[in-house]
Structure formats: C-alpha cells, structure tokens
C-alpha cells in the first residue's frame, strides 16, 4: 500500500491535463479503487465465480469442486453464480465487465471464449483484450453416450443405425457451438451420416432429456457422463481424445472405429479460471499460485481425474498462449463449417 501515493497522481493527472474521455478516467479510477484489495489482506470478502452455463453441466460441476477447495485455501467463500445464455456469452460478458478487483472471476469455457467469436456476428467481449488468464484447470475428452434403448453397441453400430434411418436419430447438445455440438458436426461429416441436432441451454437440461429418452445420443463431458454411465442410465461407446481416457481405458476412441475412416477425429475441451482485464498482477499471481497448488494436491487431482478430467495446472502466460492458439485452430474449423449464430 505504500506505492499508492505515487500511483494516484500518475492516474488522475492525465484526466485533468489531457482532458481524457470520461470512460478512460472511470477505468483509471477503478484501478485505484481496486488497488486497496491488492494488499496482503486479499481476499477480504467472498469471491464470486461466474459459470456461464446453468447448473448441472460440466463447467458447473468443476467450478463447485474447485471453488470449495480454493475458498478453503484463501480463507474466503467462493460463491458460484450460474449465468447461462447465448452459448456462454451472457455470463462471460458479466465477468469481463466486472470491476477488476479480484472479487469476480470467470470459470472460462473453451466454447464461449475461443469458438463463439467465430460463430456470432457480434460478440459482447474480446477474449484476448477483456480477460486476464489465471490458470487452466483441466482438459478433457468428451464421451459419446447413448440412451440405453438405442441398440448400438459400438461406434460402427451407431453409424450403421444412422445410415439405415437417415435423419431419424436425435443428438442433444448443451448449446450451439459447444464442444459437444462441434464434435457432433465433425462426426456427421466424417462418418457421412445424417441426424437431427437438438440444442439446449446448458448441459444439465440436455442430460436430463437424454436420460429420459427424449433424445438418443450426445457427446458429453466425462465429468458429467461417468456417473450416469456407471449407474446404467446411459451407455458409453467411445471417447473423443487422441488417446484412450485414463478414466475409462476400456472405451475405444472414436478415431479407432474400424468400420469407417475416422482416423484423426479428435475433440476435447478445457476449463480455466480468468479475471477481468486490468486485474492487479499481484491478485492474479496469488490466485494462480493457490490454484496451481490446489490442482497438484493428490486429493483434488484424484477427485477430478476419477470424474474424467485431465488436470492441467498452468501459469497465466501459458494459459494466455493456449487461448491464442485455440482461437486460430477453432477459427479455421468454424469458418470451414460455415456455422453462424445470431
């Protein structure tokens, strides 16, 4: 806090001397107001983690597991705030526009941050400019799961079933542009089949309808899929990673399907924690170091791995690089598909 007297003139005087626009001055004043949180007493009150999808989905499950334990390490409650809508854009925008004081964070979802910019004609935030990455949390393949009433016992069977009844199968997706949606479109293209895609407003409602038999299959994050597979409510055929999942090693990958050429089929997704841009580097460093230590703890690592998540504890710099690389990758994929959302 001893640096504050020197910091205040450097931020306030340009507003007076150069007659900066009000928006710029407000942003500067926000930095000053937030600076009080950057001392050794951070965090001094509960921290909100915005999850940009409804309760029940993969991002919500991980946020609650990680949030509880991270709050214990920080000595403050982590409040999970589900703000679904527009494929993750609504909640992500709320986090981007929050004060950069370290008390509002985002459970960043790959689809919202690196796929939506190429799906939506207008975006309410800029992934690179409006967020300060803290750390990746996990990278996970999806699982191809069916309602038990579907007779297919492997991926080849499902493809033959779809070819025998073109356009009859229904696939649930948590949202247009979500990893499960893109996996389905890639599967449709590579397998040469037709089915009906049924979009939902989040993973929870999609899973509920799949279990109820209202839809027949979906590509679902393993964290959510595995409990339902183990209970028999859903049937798993394959995973979507480059190699077999450590959590379900007996399941083949989609790319292993011998009946058709699906070599090269690979879709995974990630979750990570981010703060609004201009959040103090001291806060980012503290959150990052505590989160990485938590993710490396055997107890949490085992808990997430058992649910199908591959732990990826990263530096803020490595997470930022991952975001930039994925923007390039998924930009090419989405543009090639011609998919657009309003």
Give the topology, please:
Layout: H1 4-17, H2 22-35, E1 47-51, H3 58-74, E2 78-82, H4 89-96, E3 104-109, H5 110-119, E4 131-146, H6 155-164, E5 170-173, H7 179-191, E6 196-199, H8 203-211, E7 217-221, H9 222-231, E8 235-239, E9 268-276, H10 281-295, H11 298-306, E10 310-311, H12 316-337
Parallel strand pairs: 1-2, 1-3, 5-6, 5-7
Antiparallel strand pairs: 3-9, 4-7, 4-8, 4-9, 4-10
Low-confidence stretches: 1-11
Roughly what percent helix? 40-55%
Give the C-level CATH assignment of the largest domain: Alpha Beta
Distance between the termini: 46 Å
| Large-scale geometry | globular
Q: How many beta-strand segments?
A: 10
Given the helix and strand composition, which structural class is it?
A: alpha/beta
Radius of gyration: 22 Å
Order of helices and strands: HHEHEHEHEHEHEHEHEEHHEH
Look up the CATH topology of the largest domain: D-Maltodextrin-Binding Protein, domain 2
Major beta-sheet overview: 10 strands, mixed
How many domains? The number is 3
Report the average pLDDT across residues. Answer: 86
Helix count, per DSSP?
Answer: 12
What portion of the residues fall into strands of 2 or more residues?
15-25%
CATH architecture title of the largest domain: 3-Layer(aba) Sandwich
């Amino acid at each position: 806090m001893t640096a504050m007297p020197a910091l205040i003139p450097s931020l306030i005087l340009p507003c007076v001397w150069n007659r900066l626009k009000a928006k710029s001055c407000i942003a500067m004043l926000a930095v000053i107001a937030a600076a009080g949180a950057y001392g050794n007493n951070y965090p001094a009150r509960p921290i909100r983690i915005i999850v940009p999808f409804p309760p029940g989905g993969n991002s919500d499950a991980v946020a609650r597991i990680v949030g509880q334990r991270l709050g214990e390490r920080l000595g403050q409650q982590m409040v999970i705030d589900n703000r679904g809508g527009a494929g993750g854009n609504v909640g992500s925008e709320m986090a981007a526009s929050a004060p950069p004081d370290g008390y509002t964070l985002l459970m960043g979802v790959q689809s919202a941050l690196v796929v939506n910019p190429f799906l939506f004609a207008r975006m309410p935030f800029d992934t690179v400019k409006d967020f300060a990455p803290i750390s990746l949390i996990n990278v996970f393949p999806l699982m191809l799961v069916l309602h038990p009433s579907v007779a297919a016992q492997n991926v080849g069977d499902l493809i033959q079933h779809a070819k025998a009844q073109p356009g009859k199968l229904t696939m649930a997706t948590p949202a247009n542009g979500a990893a499960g949606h893109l996996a389905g479109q890639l599967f449709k293209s590579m397998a040469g089949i037709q089915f009906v895609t049924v979009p939902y407003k989040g993973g929870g409602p999609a899973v509920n309808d799949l279990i109820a038999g209202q839809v027949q299959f979906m590509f679902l994050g393993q964290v959510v899929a595995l409990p339902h597979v183990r209970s028999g409510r859903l049937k798993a055929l394959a995973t979507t990673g480059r190699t077999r999942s450590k959590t379900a090693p007996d399941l083949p990958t989609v790319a292993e399907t011998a009946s058709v050429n699906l070599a090269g089929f690979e879709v995974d997704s990630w979750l990570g924690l981010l703060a609004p841009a201009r959040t103090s580097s001291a806060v980012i460093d503290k959150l990052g170091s505590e989160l990485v230590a938590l993710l490396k703890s055997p107890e949490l690592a085992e808990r997430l791995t058992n649910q199908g998540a591959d732990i990826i504890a990263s530096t803020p710099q490595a997470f930022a690089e991952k975001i930039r690389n994925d923007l390039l990758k998924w930009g090419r994929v989405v543009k090639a598909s011609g998919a657009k959302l309003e």
